Amino acid sequence: SPLRLEVFEIASRYQLHHALALIAAGLIASRWPSRTATAAGWCFAAGTLLFSGSLYALALAGTRWLGPITPIGGALFLAGWLALAAAGARVRP
Asked: What is d(CA 87, CA 93) in angstroms, rounded to the nearest whole number?
């Protein structure tokens, strides 16, 4: 249905954006190791699994009971961005 297609598109878009953010977190963590950069990477990975994964389940299988998990993934995305910003702020050229 068009609604399921839209949900799938949202899941894939967020997965793409946060895969790039995960790469950035990995690059920062390898160049300037810190707990915040590592935490950002874990938040992006877990957020992708929960947010995009629950939306994929909804779009592909109609599994509605995973819907309440989606906001937890979104919160992990926000935490990842805050951690990545904190890690980037500590970088000294």
From this structure: 13
- The pTM of this model reads 0.90
Q: CA 19, CA 64: separation in Å to the nearest integer?
A: 25
pLDDT in tens, 32-83: 999 999 999 999 999 999 999 999 999 999 888 888 999 999 999 999 999 9
Amino acid at position 30, single letter: S
Q: Are residues 19 and 41 in contact, defined by beta-carbon separation less than 8 angstroms?
A: no
Work out the angle at residue 92's Cα, subtended by the Cα atoms of residues 16 and 14, and round it to the nearest 5 degrees: 10
- A 10 A CB-CB count for 75 gives 14
Q: What is the DSSP letter of 66?
A: G
Secondary structure (DSSP) of 8-43: HHHHHHHHHHHHHHHHHHHHHHHHS--HHHHHHHHH
Measured in degrees and rounded to the nearest 5, phi and psi for residue 34 equal -160, 160
Question: Is 63:93 a contact under the CB 8 Å cutoff?
Answer: no
